[in-house]
Write a structure and sequence with these properties.
Bound molecules: S-adenosyl-L-homocysteine, iron/sulfur cluster, FE3-S4 cluster
CATH architecture of the largest domain: 3-Layer(aba) Sandwich
Distance between the termini: 49 Å
Mean pLDDT: 94
Helix content: 25-40%
Strand order of the largest sheet: 2-1-3-4-5
Largest sheet: 5 strands, parallel
CATH superfamily of the largest domain: Methylthiotransferase, N-terminal domain
CATH class of the largest domain: Alpha Beta
Radius of gyration: 22 Å
Structural class: alpha/beta
CATH topology of the largest domain: Rossmann fold
Number of domains: 4
Number of strands: 17
């Protein structure tokens, strides 16, 4: 039986795409290689969002070339966001790669695996759903992005917004539930844009409602939110529907209006804060995460200070921060100057990382002495790990609980996780 190995970089969308490819390869009789060094087909699912992500793929490609030079025989496929419409340049730089495939363009890889072309007009066997890999699963609901933020490569690589029909999404969730999945995360670059391009009048709240009725699923999550697309109806649905977790990932990117304008984000700081206020009014304990880019073209000290001030005002649970990385092909690359020195970017990154550690420590400390509900995701060496509804990572002693909802009494916290014991577990309590 031929074997494959998929190495995935980048975001949840890539993870979902890789599981779909794995599922398709399984269907045609391939199997995942237990040892990546011995696979007949090595697939790298790439990310282009920053130079660092591309460099990791390049490093791996050079290693694979060396393996080939040592006489090992296997095929190499590169898929994902590093692959644009034209591959001439990539082919010149990496002539040892056998197959290039754009994001969600599975055909070339299936062809390399010996399958005739996919006849489903690019959707790659719509009934081939992502392979479940535990009690949680990602479900892409809207592909691509229509926003064109000036710094961002994603729309150039993933194309325009395309929503999957609601019936198909719900069918996939039912399939996942039947295979042991308890929590689904609905994915889109701007997930609240779900349905805008469909005639059926469905929106993200329609999907939430549909999932409420699916037995086996106990939690629904969604990301990434885009403030302009977050309607009251969607926020109210999160507040009202028991399975939907009160956990929002809403990238703000900057806390300064002039910078937001140069990024072409399409909202002001006040508009962003208005959405956060509405969420907190409806769900005072909602957990909030955001993304920030520091050192975008022209970012002044004052603009950066406004970002810090916004982060201090809102007190996010999680802040993902990155230094600006110019991406060839984007508006920012062509028309704006990458003029913030590397050391300044690094310093700003550091300021936000410190702020994040402080704020998430403070938030996690609030859980001390309390019980939290955890969906157990995995176990190792006698310990289990899962997440709260708000997305906090929780570790506790105990096994045999993967896929279950349990209550954990928290007795220790760090900035990044909670530690505790199963509530009501007297044996553990006396240790
Ligand atoms: N759709 C989401 C996220 C897309 S990309 C949104 O609207 O925000 C994921 C994250 O990568 C972004 O939130 C941003 O913080 C970061 N990112 C995107 N392009 C970048 C670039 N050129 N340099 C540095 N970080 C970038
Ligand atoms: Fe990129 Fe902006 Fe689209 Fe997010 S909304 S994927 S940052 S273009
Ligand atoms: Fe995701 Fe990276 Fe593509 S963040 S959408 S894999 S560029």
């Amino acid at each position: 039986m031929p074997t494959y190995h998929i190495w995935t970089l980048g975001c949840q969308m890539n993870v979902a795409d890789s599981l779909k490819l794995a599922s398709g390869l399984d269907r045609i009789g391939w199997s995942e290689s237990p040892d990546e060094g011995s696979a007949d087909l090595f697939v790298i699912n790439t990310c282009s969002v920053r130079q660092h992500a591309e460099d990791r793929a390049y490093g791996r490609l050079h290693q694979l070339r060396q393996q080939r030079q040592r006489g090992e025989q296997f095929q190499i496929a590169v898929m994902g966001c590093m692959v644009g419409p034209k591959t001439d340049d990539l082919q010149r730089r990496f002539p040892w790669v056998d197959v290039w495939a754009r994001p969600q363009e599975y055909d070339p890889i299936l062809t390399a695996a010996g399958v005739a072309r996919d006849a489903s007009e690019g959707e790659f066997w719509t009934e081939t759903y992502g392979r479940p890999s535990g009690p949680t699963a990602y479900v892409p609901v809207v592909h691509g992005c229509d926003k064109f933020c000036t710094y961002c490569i994603v729309p150039l690589r993933r194309g325009r917004e395309r929503s999957r029909p609601a019936a198909e999404v719900l069918d996939e969730v039912r399939y996942l539930a039947a295979h042991g999945v308890r929590e689904v995360t609905l994915l889109g670059q701007t997930v609240e844009a779900y349905g805008h391009d469909l005639d059926e009048g469905a929106d993200l709240a329609t999907l939430f409602e549909g999932i409420e009725a699916i037995d086996g699923i106990v939690r629904t999550r969604f990301l990434t939110s885009y403030p302009k697309d977050m309607t009251d109806r969607i926020i109210d649905a999160v507040a009202d529907l028991p399975k939907v977790c009160e956990h929002f990932n809403i990238p703000v990117q900057s806390g300064d209006d002039a910078m937001l304008e140069r990024m072409r984000r399409g909202y002001t700081v006040a508009e962003y804060e208005e959405r956060v206020e509405y969420i907190r009014k409806q769900m005072p304990h909602a957990s909030l995460a955001t993304d920030i880019i520091v050192g975008c073209p022209g970012e002044t000290d004052e603009e950066f200070a406004n970002t810090v001030a916004l982060l201090e005002r809102i007190e996010f649970d999680v802040i993902h921060v990155a230094a600006y990385s110019p991406r060839p092909g984007t508006f920012a690359y062509r028309k704006q100057v990458d003029d913030v020195p590397r050391e300044v970017k690094r310093e700003r990154l550091h300021v936000i990382e410190e702020l994040h550690a402080r704020s998430s420590s403070a938030i996690n400390r609030q859980a001390l002495g309390r019980q939290v509900e955890v969906l157990v995701e995995r176990e190792q060496d006698g310990r289990s790990t899962g997440r709260t509804r708000g997305g906090q990572l929780v570790h506790f002693a105990g096994t045999g609980l993967v896929g279950q909802l349990v209550d954990v009494a928290v007795d220790e916290v760090t900035a990044w996780s909670l530690h505790g014991r199963l509530a009501g577990d007297l044996t553990l309590a006396v240790i």
